[in-house]
Design goal:
Length: 374
Amino acid sequence: MRVLSVIGARPQFVKAALLSAELSRRGIEEILVHTGQHYDREMSDVFFEELQLPAPKHHLGVGGGGHGAQTGEMLKRLEPVIREEAPDWVLVYGDTNSTLAGALVAAKLHVPVAHVEAGLRSFNRAMPEEINRIVADHVAQLLLVPNEHAGKQLAHEGITSGVRVVGDLMVDLAMLVAAKLPAHPPILDRFRVQPRGYCVATIHRASNTDDRAAFRRLLEGLRGIDRPVVFPVHPRTREIARQEGAGEGDNLILCEPLPYAQMLALLSQSASLFTDSGGLQKEAFVLKIPCVTLREETEWLDTLEDGWNVLAGSDPAKIVDASRRLIPVRQGTPFGDGNAARKIVDALCYGLTATAISVEGPSRKAAVSASSIG
Ligand code: UD1
């Protein structure tokens, strides 16, 4: 079996780490394709080195640009690669423009698509990520969902075949790394902060960075917190943060995006997290750090149970209030059992040997038979 994985953005490097290792352990050939969506060293190379991802066989060099140009270039450059490699599966992760491009090209070339993190919805179609997820799910043959909520959502949209609950690769990796974190990570000394004496913030969603008024409200909220806030700045956020004077004469400590283990180490000793990232909401949950989500909705409904995660949108008063709340005593464990990579590879193998992967649904009558694959 040959699996072609399309990755391109930081969270995909994190998700790919355990799965690439599992594929390699089981002797399955993986062809890694990096679209180039994230291209800064600290957003890409650092993660390959740290997470020991194999070097991509193909690097498409598509970086920057608007949604149309970026996705269009990816489609154009991916098609000959998938045609030439003729894999048994094209594997896509999450909800980025790289996910959309990988899923679309494969579907048009009649190569089966496996979507990791299928079934998540924010129900907010103004988010580019929501469109990417919906399209990827509706062209995929194998829908690898992290939890029951996501499986139910797919059923609600008429997708009932090829759905497997596999758990969450990001959570599994966070649990492995968390178990090895030092009690006093050196990164605290770099920022001159004490355990539980600081908060962490990240902002990169288009709705928060491209809307100056929203960004200003977020800054007002973060500046109202009565402790230092360490704020690793995503490239998308750099310019607006500079223009708005973030970190000048206030409690914000700005820095470059951090490598994976350093970010978890910083988070692990913080008092709370303020973020619009999907991955960090889950990582905070694993590390038992209260999370305040700087959005009006979240795809990770399980984290809201017991109040571990709260939604503050970009409301400064809600942000400040949330920074003062007590840590909930009880926390559920809804995120699988550490075996997502094994379950995903099992599902890929089973999908190939099954006589047919049915792709039922109102407008999806076709079936991909094993003999037609590869
Ligand atoms: C993308 C994903 C989002 C994911 C996030 C993780 C989409 C639509 N969004 O958002 O789902 O949560 O990645 O980080 O795919 N840039 C750099 N250097 C880099 C990368 C980006 O300067 O290494 C710049 C780009 O040129 C662009 C901006 O940052 O101007 C935004 O990059 P883009 O790839 O559009 O999306 P992200 O905001 O990173």
